[in-house]
Amino acid sequence: MGPPAPAEDSLRASVVICSWRMRDLLLQCLASLEPEMAADWEAIVVVNGDEDGSAVAVRDRFPWVRLIVNESNRGVGPARNQGLEAARGRVILLVDADTTSRAGALTGLVQALEGDSEVGVVGPRLVSPDGERQRTARAFPTILTKIRRRAPARLRAVLPNDDVSDGEQAVNVGYVIGACQAIRRRALDTVGLLDERIFYGPEDVDLCLRMWKAGWRVVWDPRHVVVHHEQRLTKRRLLSRLTLRHAWGLGYFFLKHRYFLHAPAYGVSTE
Length: 271
Fold this sequence. Notes:
Spore Coat Polysaccharide Biosynthesis Protein SpsA, Chain A
């Protein structure tokens, strides 16, 4: 039957999912979040070029989902912005199609934002299907930290590390990755939507940096757990078209925020 239909006025939460060629994972994602879909929640799925029958499958199995179907892949930022613009919730949960939520995880993220008026974005602990922790909360990147992620072990030992996703309590961080972000609508209205000049990463980093600059905090809260299948397309081929677009987006991000080697210290502990 699905959740009850939401009222037309402002809702508590909107879940926005952008999907491209992930029909089966998308259906798993929707099935996992369905138990949390209360009367004052809504779900919006943006199918970014329906090449695998995702739209029909969602309509058949989850008729309560608001569906937006693009004729082609518009990129992550533009597609997510379609969902953000359509969302009516006071909290917006940006969720990747290749995630599944453990019981109460999304509700916990909403409550975390509701409990602290200074926080603009909250991210959960992300784990692999086998339970392994993923490194998804970080200080802001530099050219060197980006090189470190693809470097051999010997070189990684001497390059700076931006990973801060450790511990069991909520902490301020530079950014949380866009696989799952809970965003305060009022904060989003302050800083604006995702930068559509970034086709595929790092639009999530850019959003968090703009949040910090506008006076909102970004928090990683490991008490709430989401499983991330991590279908990151840039890992499949080193010189694929998407990898090159990601590299362009990273260069654009550094130029936009006017740094390369010395990252802004937002969210970094001084202790």
